[in-house]
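Re-run with default settings, no changes from the original entry. Doing this only to confirm the output is reproducible before filing.
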Amino acid sequence: MEVYEIILLVLGIAVGIIALGILLFLFLVSTRRSDGRMEKYKSVKFAHRGLHGEGRAENSMSAFMRARENGFGIELDVRLSADGELVVFHDNDLDRVCGKEGRVADYTAAELREMKLAGTNDGIPTFREVLEAIDGAVPLLIEIKSDKVKDGVSERVLEELKDYRGDYIVESFNPFMLRKIRRGRPDILIGILSCIYKKNEKTRGKPLYSLLENLYLNFLMRPDFIAYEKDGYAKRNLRFLRHTYRAPLFAWTIESAEEEAAAISHGFDSVIFEGYIPEK
């Protein structure tokens, strides 16, 4: 074989490897092709765990009703109680918000309702109670909280939303939860939550969290939108998805008008906020 033939062969192999790498990258990170249904959510500003503060606890009925009255979308967290009910609560355990020992999953929905949130008169509501109270008045951003794949939380979310006629979208840090939503109800708009995991000592350097941070598990469910930590605008994969696939981006958690303006200037479409009242 002549020298020039060897050079051409090496170049061909190199080009092939690069092409395969590009195709693999596109396969891993791509979002679902837009059908226009996400457009209306770009103008919605979501109150993080409701419009709490001033005596209203996070993820409480009082905070949700205040958000409804002010016309803001509502971001809320759902997880399972001991008796398989969906309750609205962020943390895995009860200590921070309720001052109680144990996990949410150790108590029934009735028992959780009696626990007071952050010294207020509000107990932990069920997801069904929140749906009935909001009744389609404002859009909901529903975060599924679960570290397990087979606990049934996604199935319960689908069951509760079956007859709900208001606007809502669903998100989770767990791509496998979203995969179940996608398979059970392809019509539901879903989004992957992510952040800069390498800033956290518990997740830094772990391959799974690196994949999640860089959105390499999008192929599992092809999200309709991405909700990313507000400081993540510099992530190249995030910018790529924004410009190539026009994937809607939500920034969390925005805590001032200045942070909101910065997020929008960096390409985020809307915000999940707390601690201030944004302009509509």
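The domain at 43-273 is CATH 3.20.20.190 (TIM Barrel). The mean pLDDT is 94.
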